[in-house]
Amino acid sequence: MTVRVKICGIRDQMGLDAACAAGADWVGFVFFSRSPRCVTAQVAAPLARAIANDGPGRIGLFVRPTDDEIRAVLDHVPLDGLQIYDDASRAAAIRDRFALPVWLAAGIGSTVDLPAFCAVDGLVIESRAPKGSDRPGGNAHAFDWTLTAGWTAPVPWLLAGGLRPDNVRRAIECSGARGVDVSSGVESAPGVKSPELIRQFVQAARA
Ligand SMILES: O=C(O)c1ccccc1N[C@@H]1O[C@H](COP(=O)(O)O)[C@@H](O)[C@H]1O
Predict the structure, then answer these.
(1) What phi and psi, each to the nearest 5 degrees, are found at residue 168?
(2) What number does the ligand 1 atom closest to the CA of 8 have?
C-alpha cells in the first residue's frame, strides 16, 4: 500500500516544486503568525494557484482561527482542505461553515487521547507541544509511535511530529500509519525547505 505524504510549511516555489516532483499527496500552507513557516494569503495565493490539477492537494493550517481569519485566506487562496488546531467541536463547526474537508490535529500523550469518534474528515495525530513552545505543532518533536498501533481510527489519519527521512519508515512500521505529515524534518533551517530532504523523505516513506 502506498503511504500518503503531506509536506507542510511550503513558503516558496522551490519548496513547492520539490514537493510536487517528489510526488507528495498534499502540501500545507501555515497561516499561524508564530510559526517560522507562516505565510500570508498574498504569498500563498500564487503558489496554490500554480499547482496542477493532478498535483498535491492544498491544505491550509490554522491555529484556533476565527471564521473571519479563515474567510480572509479563502478569499484569495484556493484550498482543498483545512488542518485545524482547536477543540473537536470547533473543528466540526468550521467544516460546516466552510464546506471544506477538515483535519483535526490531536496531540497525543497516551492511548486515551486517541479519538474514538469525530465529526471531521481526518485526523493528524502528533506529539504534544514540548514545554516552552509557543506553537502546538511544527516542533520537530516525536511521540511514542507504538501508541497508535492497536487503535481503530474513526477516520483516515496522518502521523506527524518529529518525522525525518531517517526515521519515517520506522515510524510507519511502529504506528501502522498509512499517511505521514512533515515540516521541520525536511528543512535545512527553520522555515527553509530542502528539496533533497523532501525527495529523501517521500522515498523513505514509500520504501
Ligand atoms: O509547521 C509549523 O510551524 C506548525 C505550526 C503550528 C502548528 C502546526 C505546525 N505544523 C504541523 O505540525 C506537525 C509536525 O511538524 P514537525 O514535522 O514536527 O515540524 C505537522 O502536522 C505539521 O503540519
Answers:
(1) -65, -35
(2) 23
Distance between CA atoms of residues 86 and 193, nearest Å: 26
Beta bridge partners of 118: none
Distance between Cα 137 and ligand 1 center (Å)? 4
At 138, the pLDDT band (50, 70, 90 cuts) reads confident
Which numeric CATH code is attached to 4-205? 3.20.20.70
| Domain layout of the chain by residue ranges | 4-205
Regarding the beta carbon of 86 and ligand 1, being less than 6 Å apart is answered no
Residue 94: strand, helix, or coil:
helix
Entry pTM: 0.96
Position 49: which residue type? R
Q: Are strands 57-63 and 4-8 parallel, antiparallel or unpaired?
A: unpaired
pLDDT tens for residues 1-31?
799 999 999 999 999 999 999 999 999 999 9
ipTM surpassing 0.85, yes or no? yes
β 102-108/157-160 pair status: unpaired
Helix (H, G, I), strand (E, B) or coil at 78: coil
